[in-house]
From TrEMBL:
Residues 6-154 form the DUF2062 domain. The chain crosses the membrane at residues 26-49, 61-80, 125-148. The keyword Manganese does not apply. The keyword Plastid does not apply. Pfam families: DUF2062. It comes from the Bacteria. The lineage of its organism: Bacteria, Bacillati, Bacillota, Bacilli, Bacillales. It comes from Anaerobacillus alkalidiazotrophicus. This is DUF2062 domain-containing protein. Keywords: Membrane, Transmembrane, Transmembrane helix.
Amino acid sequence: MLNKQLRKLKYLCLRLLRINDRAHSIAGGFSIGFLINFVPSCGFGPFLSTIGPKLVKGNPVAGLIGCLAFIWAFPLFFYLNIIVGESLIPIQFENNIEIIIEEIEVGPVEPEEVLEAGLKIGKTFIVGMFVNMIIFGIILYFFIYYIIKKYRRALLRLVHKKWRLKKGYS
C-alpha cells in the first residue's frame, strides 16, 4: 500500500518537473491547484484545478498535479479553516452549551437558533478559508517558483534515476 502511494508521488513529481513551461506558469498553476483543496468543491476539485490556473496564466497540468498531490489532505485543510477562522472571529453563542443540550432533550430547538449557529460557523469557515488560501498560496507559489527555477534539472535527475521503487503490487 505504501509502495503504491510512493509510486504515485514519484509519478506526480516527474510530471511536474517535466512540464515544458516557464517557472512562473508552473508555480502559479500548482499553487492554484493546491488551493482548491481548501474549498469544499463536492468532487469538482480536479476539474476546477485545471480551469483555475488558466485564469491567472498558470499551467493547467501543474494545477491538476497540485490538486491530486494534496487531495488526501482536504479534511485537514477543512479543520484548519475552522481553527483559523475561529481564532480571527470567535464563535460566541448567546446560550451556554449545557442549556442548548437541555433544550434539545426537553423539546424542539427554535429554527432561528439553529440558523444563527449555522451562519456563525459558516462565516468563521469562510474567513478562515480565505486567510489560509492567501497565506498558503503566497508561500507555496514562491517555494515552487524557487525550486523550479533553481533545482529543476537536479531534482529531475534525482527522482528519475536515484529514487528506485519496487514494482510490487502491494
